[in-house]
């Protein structure tokens, strides 16, 4: 306890409270700065992929362009649709943005360090069920999107909200099943405990299938391309935030990019060692001590952000039926089978019947089987689409042949119950006249010769 004087009153404020406030403010500032940087980074990387220049006017190399865009959004006119449910319309952006910040509270971004002479961990709060807390908070954020679509009083935002709710249900299940394998290996649901359990081996190696499933699911959870169906501008104008302007639209934008950072940080924590240094840097004894682990964590985070941008710049958007089929018919069944396999392997390892030499080949074989199943499903889907297209073309051709004689040869649509009528060729009223090379009939040439 320390002695403080605030507004002329003597008070005692514990150092743990001050350190928590400092870490909370630092975490908030880091997320806001990362959002501004990620927007700039995305625009620069996509422009590089598409051989464009990108933002390069506001600030050095355009680094302040995101800040300028934020100021522009704040100064825009705030328009509320006449048919909107105004209290819910105002509440929806807040429901999307606040859970995005809260979810990052349990992510460890470094080990224990010294701040103002006091030892503290680089984590805002360490809960024994930290992963479940993240899942719960992120599921609350979906209400903002659903309510935004419903309260706008417009058709396209409503469709975007419905799509987003179905998307969350589909991919939250696969995401939760991918975490179950990590819980079996680490023996804890605490994020700091999971990072500590990866001191020897990152879980992306023994739990490679869980990592792949989570990476696919996290792209679907964040509504990012190629899974950005709730805000597909080609078919829904802008999706759930079509009717939003000014700061309320900026809150949706902020929530999307903070969720991108949160799911990437969770992937790093669960499967890529958290703040631990990668090999061969881990051979250095001081790599995982002090403030250095923050550097490794940020490097891993930027790599994941680059992967998100890479996907957006290269892959086309899926159809909605393909997207739902991937979640329900591929990811969830594979997650269930893989979880069963992980439980069996873990039990055999606990009783001593399996060691590391047996574990790695089994995991690699399971990964190869997973890839083969995906390829087989894709080939089957393509063959089915090809067969459907051929049958559809044949039916269309038969229909055109049936309607060919309607209307005396003119493209007249049939009436209900109308059948093709047999058409007999019309007899010629005049004989066909032969034409010579000069363009005249033989009678005309004979007449010209007599003249």
UniProtKB/TrEMBL annotation:
PROSITE patterns: COMPLEX1_ND1_1, COMPLEX1_ND1_2. Residues 398-423 are annotated as: Disordered. It is found in: Cell membrane; Membrane. The chain crosses the membrane at residues 15-41, 88-110, 130-150, 171-196, 202-220, 249-275, 295-314, 326-345, 357-377. It catalyses: a quinone + NADH + 5 H(+)(in) = a quinol + NAD(+) + 4 H(+)(out). It is a multi-pass membrane protein. NDH-1 shuttles electrons from NADH, via FMN and iron-sulfur (Fe-S) centers, to quinones in the respiratory chain. The immediate electron acceptor for the enzyme in this species is believed to be ubiquinone. Couples the redox reaction to proton translocation (for every two electrons transferred, four hydrogen ions are translocated across the cytoplasmic membrane), and thus conserves the redox energy in a proton gradient. This subunit may bind ubiquinone. Belongs to the complex I subunit 1 family. This is NADH-quinone oxidoreductase subunit H. It comes from Actinospica acidithermotolerans.
